[in-house]
Amino acid sequence: MVGVLIDIVFGNRTSIEIICFTSILKIKTLFFSKEPRFLERRSIWEMETVSHHMWNEYAQLFYPDGTKEVPSDILLEQWLTPRAIAYWYMDDGAIANPNRKATSLNYHGFSLEDNSRLVRFLQKKYGLNTWIKFNKKRPMIMISGHSKMSELVLPFIIPSMHYKFPGPRLRSKPS
Q1: Which long-range contacts does 116-121 make (Cβ < 8 Å, 24+ apart)?
Q2: pLDDT in tens, 61-112
Q3: Domains of the chain by range and CATH?
Q4: What is the percent of the chain with per-residue pLDDT over 70, rounded to a whole number?
Q5: Which of 72, 99, 128, 135 is deepest in the core (most CB within 10 A)?
Q6: DSSP the chain
Q7: pLDDT tens digit string along 6-35?
């Protein structure tokens, strides 16, 4: 869902790249509480975002009673676009089973009921073969087969994230 918010703010397909790699002071001041840094041992970028009043409206939608939850189906219909799913996948997606070409979307912070709603939404709206699997007693969303998922999100996957997607043409990490 962070991808959805990023897309609302920036409204273009390179917003993840802008946020992750920009040197524009205004954006860094608005989003980051400390300088983003690359952790070589884990090969990941680490960054912390700041709280800002401009996010309050969205916070109310995701934490209406102080507990994290998926917003209404009406908002899912409006916000969970192929671009938002691509951003979600780039952030919290993974190749779950390369042999079966299954992928996963992690949503550990939400309840089983919310994950079930997301599974039903992805099945109904996009025809994806989805189900819930538990990892360390926490639900995650599995997606079988990569061709439908590829068609849906590849136009929005930035090149440096292609390695996270199954399929021979996308498996190599960028140099």
Answers
A1: 117/70, 117/73, 117/76, 118/70, 118/76, 118/80, 121/73, 121/76, 121/77, 121/80
A2: 888 888 888 888 888 888 899 999 998 888 888 888 767 678 888 877 788 8
A3: 2-164 (3.10.28.10)
A4: 71
A5: 128
A6: -HHHHHHHHH-STTHHHHHHH---HHHHHHHEEEEEEEETTTTEEEEEEPP-GGGHHHHHHH-TTSS-----HHHHHHH--HHHHHHHHHHHEEEEETTTTEEEEE-TTS-HHHHHHHHHHHHHHH---EEEEEETTEEEEEE--SHHHHHHHGGGS-GGGGGGS-STTT-SPP-
A7: 444 444 434 444 344 333 344 455 566 677
